[in-house]
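Obj.: predict assembly geometry.
Materials: sequence records (below).
Method: joint structure prediction, all chains together.
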Amino acid sequence: MNEILLKVENLHTSFFSDSGEVKAVRGVTLSLEEGKTLGLVGESGCGKTVTALSIMQLLPNNAKISPSSRILYKGKDLLKLSQEEMRLVRGREIAMIFQEPMTALNPVFTIGEQIREALELHSNLGKKKAMDEVVKLLELVGISEAQKRIKDYPHQLSGGMRQRVLIAMALSLNPSLLIADEPTTALDVTVQAQILELISNLQNKNKIAIILITHDLGVVAERVDFVGVMYAGAIVEYASTKDLFELPLHPYTKALLDAIPKIGGKDKKLNTLKGSVPPLTQLPKGCIFYERCVSADSKCIQAQPELIEVRKGHWAACIKI
Amino acid sequence: MLPDTRDVILNIIMLNYLSKKSFELLITFFGITLVSFFLINLTPGKPTDALSELNPKMTPEARAILEKHWGLDKPIHIRYGIWLKNVSRLDFGNSLSSDMRPAWDKIREKLPITILINSIAIFFIFLIAVPIGIHSAVKANSLSDKLTTLAVFVGFAMPTFWLALILQFIFGVWLNVLPVSGIKSLNYESLSLLQKFFDSTRHLCLPIFITVFGSLAGISRYMRSTMQEALSQEYIVTARAKGLSESKVVYKHALRNAVLPVITIVGLSIPGLISGSVIFETIFAIPGVGQLLYQAAMSRDYNVIMAEVVMVSVLTLLGNLLADIGYALADPRIRVR
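Observations (raw structure tokens):
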């Protein structure tokens, strides 16, 4: 068994605004072994991205992580680091790629420069050597004519190319953990597959652990070792990918899997999950999924269900199981 | 596409753009002079009033001769046509005041001091306003942001002439440390070079301070908003995510984007400063084009007024053009289009 690389314990992140506290992440606990991939799935606004930004500590100013939370990376609590120490973790230890390659690159600097400055930051390469390294990195992520491309500005590249640039940037410092926040959502379907393939290849080559945030269960089934299903800021089910797809336990997971259109399926109408995620300002006393759950009954509104290990390595937060 | 072909195409695009822009500017210039000419001529009073209306011995015949001499008897559209024809030959006519010197000569000799004061003022405005704007954006809504905002708005809201008088009183009369008018002392000619420099500096302190203080708000607030906008962009999160220091994130990634729109303001702020010169040059008795314009307007010296209008509009339009070009040079997205 591999070493545990990242362990998030009881993470609570809230946003404070004039209209009150929004509990975006409520008690997320997860762990990730070296070189493995963890998928975080759920609807928009369920706290996947906020979890990622909490780990990176790149939250906006009005967000706050509760003091009881712990984010252990290689045994060290990231939340106890000073800003300067945390800065050294970013990029070098934990890197991140984002959903929108269109806006994630600075429009007024060449892509070569944007990768080089990350590289230069953590290594003592000279400017020229660093640029050679940039070319190598761009070739590694499958950008042809890299020597010419380094002088391009982001607007001169397609979305898929920009995402490759962001991946090259993230991998330039050889991080042990890569957080990919919906890396393919903004891309064409054909490009999506290429980018995911690229990430997998680089993962195998460099033994990088990955947290893959997505709402695409198809991606999860193919690329991920473990899955955390998030709903309204909390993990409602956690299992290996195989277990989750074979025997989903939580009603929410079941509903998500039901909502995938099947080729040759008998039903003409696609199963959908009715309603939407409740507002995170006023949380109910009982199960937060109660309103939308098909198997809910009066016991469900009495207390919030705990995440319990139902089978070995398979956790779910539902009292009906 | 080959790089050279790309360059050639870019050059053609740029030339095309410049010629189109120049044509636009020419039309605008024409419009400005047309409106100004009619407006000035519609104001009550004539340049001949000082000689005729105030002189009890003036006969109507003599007045008519005088007006005919200056061409004021012709209808206004004819006079505009004549004026435009002369201007196209760079002839702005003679001043209608008693010295009757060429209008352009009168302006030319007063131009250096106005340009000097305004250049120094623009330099200080940017030197002070840009850092204030950056600081206010980075520390948005902090106490220091609120205090600097208050300070720059006080400068913006305070009438220039009032502040000028107050400062003249405080520094010139009360503390008696700075001269209150002119640009040189009476004993200027007898001073050494260093003393001359020091003397001029002392004279320019108050006018420059007033110009700078009044203009800080616009640029610093503009800088603050463009900087805040830049800091909220996703590429800033990317820059932080790769472990860049906060100063690199702010001063490299955000600033480069935020300062682009501010470049435009440099060009656009020139005419505002010249019109500000009218007020402070009059109050501080500085012999610049602002004071000249004030005097010319008061005595309805049409030719000098129009020559100044031409000068300020050319400056404004040039400022616009330079702002466009500067923007294009600084922003790669525009450069390629």
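Conclusions so far: The CA atoms of residues 137 and 271 of chain A lie 44 Å apart.
To do: check interface contacts against the pulldown list.
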